[in-house]
Specification:
Structural class: alpha+beta
Shape: globular
Strand content: 35-45%
Number of strands: 14
Distance between the termini: 91 Å
Mean pLDDT: 89
Order of helices and strands: HEEEEHEEEEEEEEEEH
Largest sheet: 6 strands, antiparallel
Low-confidence stretches: 16-20
Helix content: 10-25%
Radius of gyration: 22 Å
């Protein structure tokens, strides 16, 4: 009988401890981005002075930003149906005084993050899957206007204005 009571007490204590571990479940992520600009090959990367960020709760396998003008207008297009959406689910903020000045709070399982860099006339987007209990993500994004469309830290950086040397001559 005593052994059974100890077992029940252990189970109850375990349940209480487990409950306290998961009591403060975080169901969002503040996705913070430090953006760095590079305008010439082998040039210095400098912190961006202004970027715009927003997010849609869609998957990048189904949706895309087609042009720089679309990125500025906050427009995304469905790759299959051609449906266009122009009202983001979330608007980001930018505070140059912070170490990670661009920030977007994400609250759904899948997001399409979009960042527009008007200084370099570039835009970037990426898919983000919301983890459980990760309140903050701090990341860096390096954008280079001297090169064509490229990947950087999980982002697809699009350069609609890039012209290769052979195109210029």
């Amino acid at each position: 009988m005593m052994k059974r009571l100890k077992h029940i007490a252990f189970v109850v204590l375990g349940a209480v401890l487990l409950h306290s571990c998961f009591k403060d479940v975080v169901s969002y992520t503040d996705f913070n981005i430090a953006v760095y600009d590079q305008s010439v090959a082998d040039g210095e990367f400098t912190p961006a002075t202004a970027v715009e960020t927003y997010a849609y709760y869609v998957d990048t396998t189904e949706w895309s930003v087609l042009t720089y003008e679309d990125a500025l207008a906050r427009r995304i297009t469905n790759k299959t149906t051609g449906e266009v959406r122009s009202t983001p689910d979330v608007e980001g903020t930018f505070d140059v005084a912070l170490p990670y000045p661009a920030s977007v709070r994400l609250e759904q399982p899948i997001s399409m993050l979009v960042l527009v860099n008007p200084t370099l006339r570039l835009y970037a987007y990426r898919k983000y899957e919301l983890p459980i209990n990760l309140a903050t993500v701090d990341t860096k994004l390096y954008m280079a206007s001297w090169r064509g469309t490229h990947s950087s830290s999980g982002w697809l950086v699009k350069n609609d204005f890039f012209k290769a040397e052979s195109e210029e001559n």
